[in-house]
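Exercise 7.
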Amino acid sequence: MAVPLYPSNPASIKLSELTGQIQQAMDGIFGQKTFWVIADVTNYTYKPQSNYHYFELVEKEKSSNKILAKIAGRAWGNASLNITNFEQATGQKFKNDINVLVQVNVQYNPAFGLQLNLIDIDTNFTLGLFEQQRKDTLERLLRENPEFIQKRESITLLKTAACS
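Solution. The predicted structure, written as tokens, is:
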């Protein structure tokens, strides 16, 4: 069907034609490439009937929490299984406000827009973050409560000496 030409915009095209061109360009640039991305998970939902995970990945400025980048993401099939494995390995639910290292590919669909498809999730990255948070917490407790920590150490040393 021919698109009627309008005097104010003689070079008009259908939206589907434009989004088709965008899809071709995106496929040409990104194709089957994958990327490892560090981001926070937000707006997470899980649809158990289809085993689909929907979420956004965001990067925030550390000092102000201002959003620097945001994009829709999804996971299904093997990626959904990888999320389950991640949860079992880390003891951490895949949920809002966790910082993750995920392997993704870029997809543009004329009907659904731009999104990242999750392929894999790095459990070691998250476990490393947990360990760093634990270390930071212990150091903060030592700084803020040195007299309590010293008293506990003295009690432990006395108990150890008494048992010897």
